[in-house]
Design goal:
Elements (H helix, E strand, L loop, with lengths): L4 H10 L3 E4 L8 H10 L7 E4 L8 E3 L5 H8 L4 H16 L5 H5 L2 H8 L4 E2 L9 E3 L20 E2 L3 E5 L6 E4 L3 E5 L2 E3 L7 H8 L4 E8 L3 H8 L8 H9 L4 E4 L6 E3 L4 E8 L5 E3 L2 E2 L5 E2 L2 E3 L1 E9 L5 E2 L10 H19 L4 E5 L9 E6 L6 H9 L10 E6 L7 H11 L2 H4 E7 L12 E9 L20 E6 L7 E6 L9 H11 L6 E4 L2 E5 L20 H14 L16
């Protein structure tokens, strides 16, 4: 548990996990370029504190960008601590109790849980030390991350809303494009809880409060896939083992953590026309296209003296968000097992899939068709509804060992028999979907087959010579059980980028066909007018930005020179 974001920064510095950069680095494009180089290092690099930003606020990036820092942020030494606690708690709550003494034994755990609920802060809140009733967003070092972005975007906002019917709070994370000193966009998708709260609002002005910073566990909690109606600050209280202290906003009827660094208060007019927001280089690695979203009118900005502006960079993986996703895998595995999929042993969302595109699942299989049942159960579980390509394996398969995954596919998967297609909701940012937010899904059943589901034998005589996945530039080059056609700009031997493009550029139903008992999937970039929507470009830095950072690299104090990851995609 950290008293402030400054406290977390000092902790990281003491652990050798942070670099202070005193040289001026421009929040427009340059901070993002430096962060991109560092965050793509094999161990995630270091957290970066840019102290000279042209404003009174330093900028902190990559603060969750390693497994160590992610564990530090949520206050545990390993994810097993959380998993063991959940298992013990669920075991105690669900165990049949025959005596009064058995019931009494549960009380200490219930008392502990009661201490996680947020409470009211007493006194003058640190987040309201400086108050601007005439808002000036230009005081904040808001980043522009990529040259094709529509402007500057707040990328780690914790957006507070309340259900107009029940009063229950939600804290979500929706990017915010700056349009002026007193207005931003509010990029919440129709699936998100904040959008649902806004839709249910009966008055013309819908109150919103946005916070930045504070204990880093707040930021993680805002990203977590909690069931609807569960307060994110309850999760934060559980993780930090201390209640979050909330203070009333100054101009809106909402509460925010008293120890956060910056508060932006405002409202959205129910009857106002939406504004064009974007483009934005997104976590998919591509620009999400400009679209219509609500406009936030800012009524007040407050902040603590000596506060820090936190930001994250998204784009072509790997980025900081891979470690956030890994934490979510570990923290929420037990609750998902308990509530929906008891046969699931492990879940892994490979970073190449940028969250939603790829999922590897390990199950304890007992009956025919169980893998299909699990896939549909998970596609109905919260944010797993956005998953596009799911692979399911036996419990003996280590789904975090890529070679073991490929061995299981070669051993147990027959394309025609074991490829199952469906349709459903997809991430609004999925540009390959035939329609916005709706498209094809695919299950690859790589479990061993029981007698009832054995079906026909493999249809191709060369099965023993086939690869599990084969990336190719030639649609006639079918050397795998699953053959994936990728752009010629990507080396077929670069498995990481090939997997990324497969998940990003493919709609499983539109882009799949079987040839000689093998599966061919088209993951090449497509042009509008060929049965697809407008196709975005990859988010990369410009030559000018790369050159500017190259020239000042030595003065940054980061260490050995790191070349720009964007150069892989720049035309030579």
């Amino acid at each position: 548990m950290y008293k402030s974001l400054n406290d977390y920064v000092e902790f990281l510095e003491g652990k050798g996990e942070l670099i202070r950069i005193k040289e001026f680095v421009d929040p427009v494009l340059e901070i993002a370029e430096v962060t991109d180089r560092v965050s793509k290092q094999p161990d995630g690099g270091k957290a970066l504190l840019f102290e000279n930003t042209g404003t009174i606020f330093p900028v902190l990036t990559n603060m969750f960008g390693s497994e160590k820092r992610m564990l530090y942020a949520i206050g545990v030494e390993s994810y097993e601590e959380i998993d063991n606690y959940f298992n013990n708690l669920i075991g105690e709550v669900t165990r049949e109790r025959h005596s009064l003494m058995d019931r009494i034994k549960l009380l200490p755990q219930l008392k502990e849980a009661s201490e996680w609920f947020p409470v009211k802060y007493k006194g003058d809140a640190p987040c309201q030390e400086v108050i601007l009733f005439k808002p000036e967003l230009s005081r904040l070092p808001v980043l522009q991350c990529w040259p094709g972005d529509g402007g500057r975007f707040i990328t780690l906002p914790m957006v507070h809303t309340e259900d107009p019917m029940t009063g229950k709070r939600n804290v979500g994370m929706y990017r915010m494009q700056v349009f002026g000193e007193e207005s931003t966009g509010m990029h919440w998708h129709r699936h998100k809880t904040g959008a649902r709260h806004f839709s249910a609002c009966k008055t013309n002005q819908f109150p919103v409060a946005v916070t930045l910073g504070g204990d880093p566990v707040y930021t993680y909690s805002a990203t977590a896939p909690l069931p609807d109606g569960i307060d994110e600050y309850l999760l934060a209280g559980f993780l930090r083992n201390k209640a979050v202290e909330l203070v009333d906003c100054l101009t809106q009827p909402l509460k925010v953590p008293a120890d956060c660094d910056i508060v932006i208060e405002g409202y959205i007019e129910k009857n106002e026309k939406q504004i064009v927001e974007g483009p934005f280089g997104d976590h998919t690695g591509y620009y999400s296209l400009a679209d219509l979203y609500p406009l936030l009118h800012i009524t007040c900005i407050s902040y603590k003296k000596g506060g820090i502006y936190p930001a994250t960079l998204v784009g072509v993986p790997p980025q900081e968000d891979k470690y956030i996703a890994h934490a979510t895998e570990k923290i929420f595995l037990t609750p998902i097992q308990f509530t929906m999929v008891p046969e699931m042993v492990d879940m892994h969302l490979p970073e190449e899939g940028t969250g939603h595109n790829l999922a590897f699942i390990r199950i304890k299989k007992r009956y025919p068709g169980e893998a299909i049942k699990v896939a549909h159960a998970l596609w109905g579980a919260g944010q797993m509804m956005f998953n596009k390509i799911m692979m399911i394996f036996d419990e003996e398969t280590d789904i975090r060992d890529r070679e073991k995954v490929y061995e299981a596919i070669c051993k147990n998967y027959s394309p025609r028999r074991d490829t199952h297609f469906s349709r459903g909701p997809l991430d609004v940012l999925d540009h390959a979907a035939p329609a916005c937010g709706f498209g094809g899904k695919m299950l690859i059943d790589a479990t061993s087959k029981l007698p009832e589901e054995a079906g026909v034998p493999l249809a191709h005589a060369d099965a023993k010579q086939l690869k599990a996945l084969h990336f190719t530039h030639d649609p006639n080059d079918l050397k795998g059980f699953i053959n994936i056609l990728i752009d010629k700009t990507i080396d077929t031997q670069d498995e990481y980028l090939s997997l990324w493009q497969w998940g990003a550029n493919c709609d499983p139903i539109r882009d799949s066909r079987f040839t000689d008992g093998k599966l061919l999937m088209d993951a090449i970039s497509k042009s509008k007018g060929t049965g697809v929507r407008e196709w975005p470009t990859i988010a990369i830095s410009s030559e000018d930005t790369i050159k500017a950072v190259d020239e000042k690299w030595e003065s940054l104090g980061i260490g050995d020179f790191i070349a720009s990851p964007s150069r892989r995609f720049l035309k030579k």
